[in-house]
Amino acid sequence: MANKVESTKKPLLSARQVGMAAAFGGAALALVLAGVTIPVPGTPVVTDPREIFTTIGASLTGPVGGVVVGLLAGIAEPGIPLASLLAHVVGGVFNGFVYKNASWKFKDNKVVSLALWAAQVLAYYVVVVVPLFVVGLMAFYPDPEYGGFFGFLGVLEAGALPEAVFTTVVTTIIMAALPEKYRRPLW
After folding, report:
1. 46 has which bridge partners?
2. What DSSP element (H or E) covers 38?
3. How far apart are CA 156 and CA 184, in angstroms?
4. Per-residue pLDDT for 95 more than 80?
5. Contact call for residues 71 and 25 (beta carbons, < 8 A)
6. Each residue of 30-74: pLDDT tens digit?
7. Which residue, 41, 66, 80, 144, has fewest beta-carbon neighbours within 10 Å?
8. Which neighbouring-strand residues pair with 103?
9. What pLDDT, on the 0 to 100 scale, is given for residue 118?
10. Global pTM?
11. Is residue 71 within 8 Å of residue 63, measured between CB atoms?
12. Distance (Å, rounded) from C-alpha 36 to C-alpha 169?
């Protein structure tokens, strides 16, 4: 008689992950398609609230779900979809890995978990999304007005700061309010 070995390994992408990733990514896409934007005074940056959905959705659904969320969040960016796709897909993968391996590990200490969440969201902006957006703009949509990489990065980082702070505060409040079973990573 052959030994039966039960696998405790979760599937790469479950139906629940697909559904949640599609819902969160779809909400981000709907905001972009609806043209919900807020200009940041004194900068060339226009912000929108889609990052609330992309950060939470990718974090909960993991790296593969983060790809789905990132594709939906970036695909309809007016005039510059390739730059947005690069930033949001890699950002989704980042959030999926970081959430499970940082803030979720400290779920028993809510203060530490929420502080790590806030750090994750800020790192998402400063280290991943804005720099990759600049790389995407310079690679796919070159324009001499951008200037050098670091100068352009500085302008966009400064312009994205209000959005980063807003998204960090709002998503931290949401994560604090959610019961543990709804904050659990699905992968």
Report:
1. 39
2. strand 38-39
3. 33
4. yes
5. yes
6. 999 999 988 877 766 777 899 999 999 999 999 999 999 999 999
7. 144
8. none
9. 98
10. 0.88
11. no
12. 19
